[in-house]
From TrEMBL:
Record has Iron-sulfur as a keyword: no
Any Pfam family hit: MM_CoA_mutase
EC number per UniProt: 5.4.99.2
Domain (Methylmalonyl-CoA mutase alpha/beta chain catalytic) ranges: 76-489
Keywords for this protein: Cobalamin, Cobalt, Isomerase
Name of the featured protein: methylmalonyl-CoA mutase
InterPro entries in UniProt: Cbl-dep_enz_cat, Cobalamin-bd_sf, MeMalonylCoA_mutase_a/b_cat, MeMalonylCoA_mutase_a/b_site
């Protein structure tokens, strides 16, 4: 017998199959001549991929190399494992940060935000309570600023933290060129969520320049102080195409401001970084991140820069819009695919949020799982070993190209309107995202978009209202008693550095960064898809009694089983108590069960043919029992709807009905809400 090792490979044994042959096979199997319509995936993300792609599709794409990510020569696809830290005290935050570094993280993400509570005379600080230079020193105590990347998710107060970082580097006599940090300073998203500018547009542009020159003049080459926070678009309901298109427009806005003030394009590009959310559409997300690099390359070239000298710095964070309260452990599965898509696509850093962070203070367990997911990607799945592993995939390459082209079209539309800021003033951005959000809500309400454990495949016995503990502690910002602000200073950043060195407090300098005022433009609110279903379910959890649903499976065993399972799943979304017998031999037997169990809802489950005779009989009989339940039919009534309603049917439930609307009616009729 010939040793297989000695036998040369002969690929002629596997003759090529043409695209036309594949298409003919698909048409035959589907008995449908237009498979491109039948099998096209309407993703809800502004793109509708075909079921398969072939080598010839790549001929239309002018790219034949992997998409580069600038890394050291000995690194292929490395990324930072970034740990979010948002403790309510400085000492706890420092302990949490050091613990994360000792357990596998190699970058830290600090969150803090300033807001004015309703009717409060002073602003309040949420997140890590940094108010002065000594607070900053406490936060980073024992953390090497020359080896650990720091990232400050602090919005419009980021310049204050940048000044504190510079002072700390100076105080410790460190090499500023070795310091690596990013700051989430993005006035566009502030405008989007607050409906007003943080200060006059001319002053805002000057601040952007001051921030940039502060970094470059002090040789802090590893610091990127300006952000394009695309998370704001994603977590407000935007599609992938919109997220990319508006992010590109934001990058163009800041490049324009800087280059018009004589900052060279390549240098300006090195000051910017992107923050994206990673959603659950696995392949589309891989393509999105790859397309982001290509869009950045096009943009830098359009401004006369050299893309290779200012590669896009892309951070990915798991989505907040798709995380569920019920069946919360399913969130770990969602974050796993989201993190994988970001790693495979070549993001520079990744944050995987704990699975429970949206409804309570994350536990050590949830933080450890989030961190270990990335460690598995790196240490066990070896996702850091190959640069752009998706390169050459017919499917992903075509998705990358189509997503990039459509996002560029949005960017051009925004530019034609006068740029992103003008488009936000006009309400164009908000209107587009609100339209996308409405479509998402419709898909969720009709359960075309599934959230396991929330609008399908629920566990009715699960209760969560006692597990919710999301009250974010706030700290009132207090001004120093002996410090006066000089709001007319020419260089904002130099003033901030000097002020904090003289022990100024954050409240002293807030007026220099953010003006007070009422919204002048439409605003976007944070969005989480499952929330509407969860609110109905929480009402049941908190209600003193739980409504009971009794299935009435009659007739054809296959049909009654399927519809009984469907109805159980349907009412499980409300956390009702489900009684689902295998079946009844007669309607009379089912009526006896109603008399005995006294359910709030009775659901008739049978075949469409049987309903013609069953519905009138059941409706008449149920109306005569002591304390008659609501009478529900499992199945789409079609032209018989009025006849069945006259027979006593209160509601119809069927696949792709507006489940949210119908469930809300049940909650109201049963006085749960």
């Amino acid at each position: 017998m010939t040793d297989p090792k000695d036998r040369p490979l002969d690929f002629d044994e596997f003759p090529a199959v043409s695209t036309s042959a594949w298409e003919q096979k698909i048409k035959t199997d589907l008995n449908d001549g237009n498979y491109r319509r039948t099998l096209r995936w309407h993703s809800g993300e502004g793109i509708a991929p075909l079921p398969f792609y072939r080598r010839e599709n790549l001929k239309e794409i002018p790219r034949h190399q992997p998409i580069p990510k600038i890394l050291p020569e000995d690194a292929s696809n490395e990324w930072e494992i970034r740990e979010p830290v948002s403790e309510a005290s400085l000492s706890e935050a420092n302990v949490s940060a050091r613990k994360a570094l000792n357990r596998g993280s190699d970058a830290l993400q600090f969150h803090l935000d300033v807001s004015r509570l309703e009717d409060a005379p002073v602003r309040h600080l949420t997140g890590i309570p940094i108010q002065c230079q000594s607070d900053f020193s406490t936060l980073v105590n024992g953390i090497s600023l020359e080896t650990i990347s720091l990232h400050f998710d602090a919005g419009l107060i980021s310049p204050a933290l940048l000044a504190m970082l510079f002072n700390e580097v100076h105080e410790q006599e460190l090499n500023p060129q070795k310091v690596r940090a990013t700051f989430n300073y993005d006035p566009a998203t502030y405008l989007l969520h607050n409906g007003r500018y943080p200060k006059k547009k001319t002053l805002l542009s000057e601040d952007i320049v001051y921030i940039s020159r502060f970094v470059t003049d002090r040789a802090m080459s590893g610091v990127r102080p300006l952000a394009i926070d695309a998370r704001s678009y994603h977590n407000s309901g935007a599609t992938i195409i919109q997220e990319l298109g508006f992010a590109t427009a934001a990058a163009s806005e800041y490049l324009s401001i800087l280059t018009e003030r004589n900052v060279e394009t390549t240098q300006a590009g090195q000051l910017l970084h992107f923050n994206f959310s990673a959603g659950s559409n696995y392949f589309l997300e891989i393509a999105k991140f790859r397309a982001a690099r290509l869009l950045w390359k096009n943009l830098v070239e359009a401004y006369g820069g050299v893309p290779g000298q200012c590669s896009a710095s892309i951070h990915a964070e798991t989505s907040q819009g798709n995380k569920t309260l019920y069946a919360p452990y399913t969130n770990m599965l969602r974050t796993a695919t989201e993190g994988m898509s970001a790693a495979i696509a070549g993001c520079n850093s990744i944050t995987i949020r704990p699975f429970d962070q949206h409804f309570r203070k994350s536990s050590d367990f949830s933080q450890r799982i989030a961190r270990n997911q990335q460690l598995i990607f790196r240490e066990e799945a070896y996702l850091d070993k190959v640069a752009d592993p998706a390169a050459g995939s017919y499917y992903i390459e075509c998705l990358t190209d189509e997503i990039g082209r459509k996002a560029w079209d949005i960017f051009r539309e925004v530019e034609a309107e006068g740029g992103l800021m003008q488009a936000i003033e006009n309400g164009t951005v908000q209107s587009a995202i609100e339209d996308s959000k409405t479509k998402r809500n419709q898909a969720i309400a009709r359960r075309r978009r599934t959230f396991v454990g929330t609008n399908r495949y629920t566990s009715p016995e699960e209760t969560m209202h006692e597990n919710i503990d999301r009250d974010n502690p706030t700290v009132a910002l207090r001004q120093s008693s002996d410090f006066s602000i000089q709001s007319s200073t020419d260089d904002t950043m130099q003033y901030l550095a000097d002020a904090f060195a003289r022990q100024a407090r954050l409240a002293d300098v807030i007026p220099l960064l953010i003006d007070s005022g009422a919204p002048a433009f439409p605003v976007l609110e944070p969005y989480r898809g499952p929330r509407a279903f969860e609110e109905l379910r929480l009402a049941t959890d908190k209600h003193p009694t739980t409504p009971t649903v009794l299935m009435l499976p009659l007739g054809d065993k296959k049909q009654r089983k399927a519809r009984s399972a469907f109805a159980s799943n349907f009412f499980g979304c409300l956390g009702y108590r489900i009684k689902s017998p295998t079946g009844f031999d007669s309607l009379e037997e089912g009526l006896k069960a109603i008399e005995k169990q006294k359910p709030d809802i009775a659901v008739l489950c049978s075949s469409d043919d049987a309903y013609n005779t069953l519905v009138p009989k059941a409706g008449a009989a149920i109306s005569k029992v002591d304390r008659p339940p609501m009478f529900v039919l499992a199945g789409k009534p079609g032209q018989d709807k009025e006849r069945y309603e006259e027979a006593g049917v209160d509601e119809f439930i069927y696949e792709h009905c507006n489940a949210l609307k119908i469930l809300r009616r049940f909650q109201k009729k049963l006085r749960v809400i």
